Amino acid sequence: MNKHTVITHFILIIGALFMTLPVWVAFMTSTHAPETIMREGLQFWPGGHFLETYNEVLFEPGGVMKKVTALGMMKNSLILGIGFSVGKVIISMFAAYAIVYFRFRMANFLFWIIFMTLLLPLEVRIIPSYKVVADLGLLDTHTGLIVPLIASATGTFFFRQFFRSVPDEILEAARLDGASAWRFFIDILVPLSKTMIAAILIIMFVVGWNQYLWPLIMTTKEENYTLVIGIKQIYQVLNEGGELPQFQKAFALTILATLPPVLVVLVFQKWFVKGLVESEK
Amino acid sequence: MKRVQFEHSPIPYLFVAPQLLIIAIFFLWPAGQAVYQSFLLEDAFGLSSQFVWFRNYSDTIFNEGWLQSAWFTAIFSSLVTLLSLGLALLLAVKANEVIRGASTYKTLLMWAYAIAPPVAGLMGNLMFNPLIGDLYHFMNSFGYDFDHKLHETDAAFVVILISVWKQVSVNFIFFLSGLQGIPKSVTEAATMDCKSPTRRFWTITFPLLAPTTFFLMVTNITYAFFETFGIIDTTTQGAPGGATTTLVYKVFQDGFRGADVGGSSAQSVVLMLIVLILTVIQFRFIERKIHY
Amino acid sequence: MNLFKKLAVGAVTSMSLMASAAYAQVEIQWWHAMGGRLGEVVEEIATKYNASQSEYVVVPTYKGGYEDTMTAGIAAFRAKQQPNIIQIFDAGAATIIYSKGAVVPVADLLEKYAGGFDSTDYIEGVRYFYADSDGKMIGMPFNSSTPLLYYNKDIFAKVGLDGPPATWEELEAMAPKLKEAGYQALAQSHSPWIWAENFMSRHNLPLATANNGYDSTDVKILYNTPELRMHWTKVKEWLDKGWYGYYGRGWGDNQDAFVQQKVAMWLGSSGSFGGLTKSAEFKFGAAYLPYWKSVVDEPTSTFIGGAALFAMAGKSEEENKGVADFLKFLTNPEMQYFWHRETGYVPITNAAYEMAKADGYYDSTPDAEIGILQLTQKSGEWTKGYRLGFYVQIREVMYKNFEDILSGKASVEDAFAAIEKDGNALLARFHDTYK
Per residue in C21-42, pLDDT tens? Predict the structure, then answer.
């Protein structure tokens, strides 16, 4: 091994440590008793309280009004993640197909509208979006949580790029065979896009699961909290001066909030990376 | 445009309708409302309103708090973008060179993409907690009184650190992909022409990565402007004294906490304009310099 | 299904519909911001009320912290889905009171449906904050507290101090001794509330023009005064000398410093002693908020913080009757005493206070009385509280500038000039909005 390779590995190891150490420490600390943490600070090695803490956090109602468990919040996060990703894929595939494969009057104009939504994320219009959802009576509902998030055109953009890369010969061949627009879509294009669909599903699941600002303002009942916003509220309770701070529970919650998307990303790593990178082109 | 297309069918309208409907209801309508309300002085309950032209805008833009958050947003975004791009590039280059353990490194370096900004913020907050946080004690051990609750630079440091940490993964993935996309013939020719790896990198590799870098710059700036909301809300909440308030955080504070509809709408519109201008600048000026 | 079954199902359905119509109770929606133990007591109150009569059912819902609850209430009102009762905090009072048509004054409701309303039933320090300038109560104070000084009796004994300081001058005399023993003398948990608003009240100084904002929205704040500047100059000195510690804006962080015995004294709320009893592993006591002898010979009372219950407008007469009935229930001395005992918030009526005294509550828990005693101390022209718009943002301005003073980024003069300028700009905006 020459010097250059040693340095390379060294840099990579430091980088890997930088990226993984915080979560390792968070996980280890979550397995200790709160008194230990108060006395000694963050922990690097496992303690004996893993089952006890995670059991409490998952199954015992916590939160401000004691109405929600981590398990309940995970369920909400799951509904959000899956609902969002599936909804997005379906709606954007349809829209992208229309834009790419049809010559109709408004196609270009529509494309630009869709492009605009990419530039202006939800955060710039949260107050009026909140009002619209409230007026429609959709606060604290799964519909109100998921549907407005689909209003950004990232998915349409991805699929548009992908469809444009599909060779024209395939379409020609299908038309020669007498396929209608609908048939072409269902029988040929969709199966062709399988990898892309999988990748987008995975990416959007992570995006949906990790949503913060929107769920924060439009869920007002604790039972409807997703995990990602629930941990902040619960942390505030843990912190409300007085009782012994339950840091191990706070860390346990962060681990639980991270686990599903990380698992999804790691297990489907290949597709996920492919999807991300394909979309850039 | 595709050469071959379907024509004269109701299908495109049907297919595009759901997306358009959602965009109309949940994007165009609220955006329009934001613009409309920015011209009004309205009481919190919507019971009375007056049209005041650009007063909300002048109240906003000439307000010290807004200027402070605009300034902070600019510095914060630049630092986060530069640092996370730089770190990611370094790691990607190294990961590309290495053969043994390549996929392990890759996995370890990219997984943080999946973690939500507020969760990262909460973890970071706990690690800087004066009672138990090792990082807090570490920073204090240099003889400097580190206190991110009181000192502005310290608070900014914490927020920037966590934001960069989270973003390195995404950039890493793209840079690595970009590097792996460089044809072997090019790298071989470069190695023959140019003995110094550093020179090789700057004259050949880096320009070839330009499209990727450009794309990442746009996404990183958007990330720093908007997605870091989750990090700020779980760590400093914009404190101390508004020093870590980004523009979007201020929109949230004034609209949601302060019940100032006109003011936060005006801020939203101004923020939209800023992002629009930034994007246009990036596309026009920087993209020109990139040779594909 | 065959015909017979269909008829049977139809009959049962219509009978049960009629039955439920007969037993239909009027639902009263109550949105509140009380979490944790406080929320549990809120639920208990609702349960007690529902059990005590059969016409109305009160349904409490926790909507988040004070700001979130107010925001939710505002959005609901705009969507015509507002609750019957909403809990609004001190900083939000101006917003809801000046939005004409948003609420029905509780005094009016109680007069009309619950046999009358006499504001002298209410403790003086509590009476005025949510009333209009004629003294008519718009909101009913619910969870009221006032700033108090808590001190660590164990540390005091160790260092040889007799008792808590009555004045800031006395605190300055004690601080060096505490520092020698390794303790910071003081921490506090809400700089605007304790060291601006109640500072003015304690020294009987006006905090805004237009009768502290009660008379009109055309108002300017009066924080930029020599007395308050002097106080904050001192606070900065104390910070530099190690006599005062600032643990951030979080209420809990500063309270923790007291519980961890890093500081010997802590300025908190009259409601804090319940939590302290559970978490403090040392003997502690409560005392009055100190004042400057150099500013005033005899201090005047402080006023209440916390929140009040407002009856939202646009509801049916049936429901308004229920709201009046529930509010009357809440003001019963028994309920007040219950709430006071369980939460540490002060009882708001004289009758409740008398009941607690007669019950010997203060003999066993003398600290619980200090808050009320302070609220019933000598009142002055400026002890009524304040009514200022956009006050949430004004408090932000205050936090920012106070933090700038403490970190040394701004001088006391500059900081207060900024508070005055930005605060008045916000008030002018509010005035124009709510003309």
Answer: 445 689 999 999 887 778 888 9
pLDDT in tens, B63-109: 878 888 899 999 999 999 999 999 999 888 888 887 777 788 888 88
The CATH number, out of the four listed (2.102.10.10, 3.50.50.60, 3.40.190.10, 3.30.70.360), of the domain defined by the range C147-302+389-433: 3.40.190.10
- Beta-carbon contacts of A230 under 8 Å, excluding residues fewer than 6 positions away, are A63, A68, A70, A73, A222, A253
Percent of chain B as helix, strand, coil, to the nearest 5: 75, 0, 25
- Contact status, residue B119 vs residue B247, Cβ threshold 8 Å: no
Q: Which long-range contacts (CB under 8 A, 24 or more apart) does A172-181 make?
A: A172/B4, A175/B4, A181/A101, A181/A102, A181/B6, A181/B9, A181/B11
CA–CA distance, B37 with B40 (Å, rounded to integer): 5
The residues with which A160 forms a beta bridge, in sequence order, are none
Nearest to B259 among C70, C100, C407 (CB): C70
Please enumerate in sequence order all residues whose Cβ is within 8 A of that of C260, keeping only pairs 6 or more positions apart, or say none.
B131
| Number of other CB atoms surrounding residue C259 within 10 Å | 24
The closest alpha carbon to C288, from C353, C194, C388, belongs to C194
Interface with chain B: mutation pick from A89, A113, A212, A233, highest number of B CBs within 10 Å: A212
**Looking at the domain that runs over B63-289, which CATH code has it been given?**
1.10.3720.10
The CATH number of C25-145+304-375 is 3.40.190.10
Closest partner CB to A269 (pick from B107, B122, B234): B107
CA atoms of C182 and C359, how far apart (whole Å): 41
Any CB–CB contact under 8 A between C310 and chain B?
Answer: no
List the one residue out of C246, C54, B235 whose CA is nearest residue A239.
B235
- Measured distance CA(A260)–CA(A202) in Å, rounded: 11
Please check whether residue A139 is in contact with residue A218, taking contact to mean a CB–CB distance below 8 angstroms: yes
Nearest to C312 by CA among C112, C103, C109: C103
CB contact set of B258 (below 8 Å; sequence gap of 6+): B264, C390, C392, C393, C396
Token pair for residue C74? 């505002």
* CA distance to partner chain C, nearest, from residue A238 (Å): 10
CA–CA gap between residue B262 and residue B6 (Å, rounded): 47
**pTM to 2 decimals?**
0.82
B291 pLDDT more than 50? no
Amino acid type, A115 = F
User: What CATH number does the domain containing A55 carry?
Assistant: 1.10.3720.10
ipTM of the complex: 0.82
